Amino acid sequence: MAPQSPTAAGPLVAIGGAEDRTSDLEILKQVFSLSQPDSREVAVIATASGIPEQILPIYATAFGRLGASRVHALAIQSREQAADARNVTLIRQSGVIFFTGGDQLRLTSILGGSPVLEAVRTRLATGAVVAGTSAGAAAMPGTMIYNGCATDALRKGGVNMTFGLGLVAGLVIDSHFLARGRFTRLMEVGASNPEQLGVGIGEDAGVIIHPNRVLEAIGPGHVVLIDSRELAHTNIAELSMGEAVSIEHMILHALVSGHGFDIDARRYLDADALATCLAEAP
Amino acid sequence: MAPQSPTAAGPLVAIGGAEDRTSDLEILKQVFSLSQPDSREVAVIATASGIPEQILPIYATAFGRLGASRVHALAIQSREQAADARNVTLIRQSGVIFFTGGDQLRLTSILGGSPVLEAVRTRLATGAVVAGTSAGAAAMPGTMIYNGCATDALRKGGVNMTFGLGLVAGLVIDSHFLARGRFTRLMEVGASNPEQLGVGIGEDAGVIIHPNRVLEAIGPGHVVLIDSRELAHTNIAELSMGEAVSIEHMILHALVSGHGFDIDARRYLDADALATCLAEAP
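ok -> structure tokens follow
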């Protein structure tokens, strides 16, 4: 009934891409540590990937090292597979559901409206951890970016967007954020609708979106936030396509590991404030 | 907390544009008739319009003829005005809130995250009618189309989208649908994410989105639905920008006045079935 903003009971973890998968697994370790002790099976969904046969064994090994009781490697490359009851069953029994990188349009065009996606939502609502890297992170919100060169963004229409997987409301996620200089993409989105918090995740960085809608940065990289809520003015509605967008007043944050942000209150949380917020959570 | 899918208590009415405003007012009459008997004040929000001083008096006269006790003409052309407590108060006391046409990016870039939009959502949740025509209809969902030539659509990236006003979840709305031949726009959106129902509204046609998520077509024109839920395959994720999108299996409906559709069950409702659905609603 409310696909774009479930009341999550489990945490989401959005990862900026290129997280360590073979060495000390810092980010994947945090993902796995969020799972409930009685629910240590992991489903890895490689729908976004064009090379699932290469990527799935890497994650299977990584989660195996971290203590997963079983790892289900789900390629899911067609809508038929996204409706397959066997895949649905494996997701239902998993405590961690992980979306690999690749192309977010593959994720949405194959999983949109499918029994597999519905099972992921149900598991999130009942306490599972849902994590994704790169495309798997970008696709999480109700609306996602799927294309847009950083140098063309901030020109009207420079960012291409469509409906995402609907796992979290009120924000837009961009990945590979610092490596690819994507500030302009989130600025254009913020100008088009200042309500939505822009979350730009660097490589080998991630953000836990706790069920109480508090963000927590993890990993060695940065999480950049672009908060347009107090936007004073933009010309975006007056422009022709391709013309330069003006922006008066957006707020920028860069979170490092252990720092956080309250999405709804728009409040930056240092390590102490974050600890308090998370301790208070039900 | 859940801006993209409020549990609406009041109906939404999306109008395809160019509805009659001066003669027999067929569609506006139906909008007004949905308001609660003790709540006959109307707020007309002309934020989308570049010529609010011309359009506001036309709607003020029309709703006056229909029996509005007061009509509040709200131009709201800046983010400062969208935070003005006087405008919030006028919306709070209105039983009908009407968004004029114009440019949907003006609506979202000026109203996104504002106290005025929050007041509109609160009124919808407490039983007010929220209606919009053209841009005012297109902006209603969590994600909206704001640009895209029908002849370029169905080529990857041909449709430009961003976050909408978040008044309804699970669908995308296009207006002036038959006059401007916009089938390809909703097909591209459906290929990018088959979960979302495409609702294409003709001129002088409208669709009531009842709180139980049943659609009801009104007015002399057509309401076209493009249902991609059973999409078998699309190549959209494999393409470069600008390349032609393939689609295997979308379902198309054309509703006329008195016919309906159950959004979540994906069920076409003829006049009898619609009457049953609406009679059963709480």
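Chain A touches chain B through 51 residues (CB under 8 Å).
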